[in-house]
Amino acid sequence: MRFIIIAGFAGSLLNFRGPLLQALQARGHEVHAAAPGLGAGSVEAEQLRKMGIIPHDVPMDRTGLTPLADLRLLVALARLMRRLHPDAMMGYTVKPVIWGTLAAWLARVPRRVALITGLGLSFNEGKGAKQRLLTALVSGLYRAALKRAETVVFQNRDDLALFRDRTILSAAAQTRVVDGSGIDLDRFARAPLPDGPLRFVLVARMIASKGVREFAEAARRTRECHPQVQFDLIGGLDSNPDSVTADEIDRWQAEQVLTWHGQVADVRPLMQAAHVVVLPSYYREGVPRSLLEALALGRLIITTDMPGCRETLDGENNGILVPPRDAAALAQAMDKLASASCEELLKMSEASHRLAKQRFDVHRVNRDMIAVIEGETQGA
Question: Judging by DSSP bridges, how do beta strands 30-35 and 2-6 pair with one another?
């Protein structure tokens, strides 16, 4: 089988889909990958080639809403697939799902899979006219594209329910639900909790909807009662209009609220040095990668009661769920863990790792994904 995967960000092909692509190759399939930033001189393209995956650069602006640019993307993807004649394709994130699925339909690709890895800000509940217009526009585009998909895969049941309720999906649509992207339990092997003062870490792109500002405010409040507690922020600045500014981060560091490490190549050492991984997101996630890594490493979790995020908690056995956009509630959760005994923290650490093994092992998730890509059908 010749298979092509379409992504909105080249790095995600390696970080999030690498094990899936390698598993497909191991089954004898020819694997192609299309994304922006895979042209000549691309580090990601070279890494994909070393894995035996054939990269293709495509003209995609992952955050813009420019009709002409999106039309150019549709044409480029359709031409690429007409040239390659793949047996199956899969797109993930908004533009690859919409334009990739439509392009595959135009190119008569027999098997078309759409992977919904969360809904982002497009489906956040907002009262403004701009937000309502954006939601209506994206809903219409999804509706048009998903009619042409053979199978639509979701990473949590909340997103599936929303698409059903809003008739973005027809009642007859073939769907599957998988447990996120999975996590490599060998690469993110469980590590003992560190000695010393409690340490909280947030790993995310520096955008407001990931709860970065709430994290900083909660850190400030927590340090008033627990001055020994440490807070780390990991992730690069982003071009998204919703991004947190460098000036804000500099101010938090100057006030000794937290330490920002920027974008790092390997998050494991910093996550292993922490006790608690925090993601106060109000962005509609699939199942957040940083929380899957936290589970595998045996780290406690504080996250929001939002689709995708809540999937990573086993009641209060391994962490605390807080309301979105609520720095006060987040600070209370931090205070509770800062006041917990070593025995309580250890039990929660064990519960996190146990949940990772039970639900989120990447090999288990990839078996489900491969079954869909290869054409085995089973409804959600």
Answer: parallel
Q: Does the global pTM surpass 0.90?
A: yes
Enumerate the β-bridge partners of residue 259: 232
* Boundaries of domain holding 296: 199-359
In a domain, 47, yes or no: yes
Total count of domains within the chain: 2
- pLDDT in the model for residue 376: 76
* 366 shares a domain with 322: no
Q: Which residues make Cβ contacts (< 8 Å) with residue 111, sequence separation at least 6?
A: 87, 88, 89, 150, 373, 375
**Are 69 and 63 in contact, with CB atoms under 8 Å apart?**
no
**What value does the mean pLDDT of the chain take?**
94
pLDDT of 280 reads 98
Strand partners for 5: 33, 90
Q: Which of the four pLDDT bands, split at 50, 70 and 90, describes residue 184?
A: very high
Query: Could you tell me the strand order of the sheet in which 151-154 lies?
Result: 54-57, 30-35, 2-6, 88-92, 111-116, 151-154, 175-177
- What number is the average pLDDT over the span 314-329? 97
User: Is residue 122's pLDDT more than 80?
Assistant: no
| 188: in domain | no
Q: What's the pLDDT tens digit per position in 34-88?
A: 999 999 899 999 999 999 999 999 999 866 678 899 999 999 999 999 999 999 9
